[in-house]
Amino acid sequence: MPELELRHLRAVCAIAEEGSLTKAASRLGLTQPAMSAQLRTVERIVGGRLFDRTPGGSPPTDLGRQVVGTARLVLDEVEQLVSLARARTREGTPGPLLVGGVPTLFFGHFVEELRRVIPCSEVRTEITRGASDLLELLVSGQVQLGVLDRFEGLERRELRGLELRRLVSEPQFVALPETDPLGAQDEVDLGQLADRDWVAPPDELVGNRLGIFTACAAAGFTPRFTHHVNEASTARSLVANGAVSFALPQSRSGDGIVIRPLRGAPLMVDLMLATRRDGPAAGRAHDVFAAAARAYRAVLPRNPGYAKWWDEHPEAHREIDAALVAGG
Predict the structure, then answer these.
(1) Which listed residue, of 35, 41, 82, 135, carries a Cα 20 to 30 Å from 245's Cα?
(2) Are the beta carbons of 116 and 141 closer than 8 angstroms?
(3) What is the pTM of this model?
(4) In Å, how far are 229, 240, 294, 301 from 233, measured between CA atoms?
(5) Which residues of the chain are under the pLDDT cut of 70?
(6) Residue 14 to residues 64, 95, 159, 317, Cα–Cα distance (Å)
């Protein structure tokens, strides 16, 4: 009879957290058949089905919830054991922690949180133009953990040595000139922006290009990307002078622009946390995720419209809520 291994525990936890075998396999850098084989092995060992297979995902059974809860405790204990052992055998002062990210509004808070929880000589950061570039740095070991948005084709990329976990599913808001009549609305219909000039990053840096065009097509138009800009102050200036753009939901109104949610949240982007299994943060995955959760939660007050949306959509941030509750 096969024995239960740590990789089996990681697999069942990933399935529970992601809600599907496909997403769990992507997170752990496995193929779906390999993930299914691991799940069957665990189910044979424990003697029962751990997850129901439904069109909407793979929710845990009662037995599954018990196994996942115990597995999380075991994995946390093993990570702590390895971390403490490495700390005792490491000579001299711990080295630097290399952190990468795409442009986000909570990254500074994240770095400060990491300084508190990860033993290191310093935290160094590398902000990349896009998530694809950051993934290359992570895979090559040039950075050891990173914050990136899920981009089209991520599942086909080499993820060996990495663990990917969703932090939050962000709604894309819209930035409008403060003189625009639509700015007086609490929410804006995407279809109301059909005749506008749009500001967007260069095409090669838009990781969710297909999602954008799909959402706009559903609203009855093809967006007219007139201005290609990869610098925030220039983009805001163009919006203040008549254009529109998608915006991070924590963005603040001011300086001639207003930030508004899109009615029905037609465009959602998953923000992911990637960690290497061999870096200074190895064995501290729980601490890193909790640090990211605290940092993200800290920037909600920047935009009261997003804080309101957040309260109305708990399904978008269940991972953050769980991490904050676990951390007290």
Answers:
(1) 135
(2) no
(3) 0.71
(4) 10, 10, 27, 21
(5) 1-2, 80-94, 327-328
(6) 12, 30, 15, 16
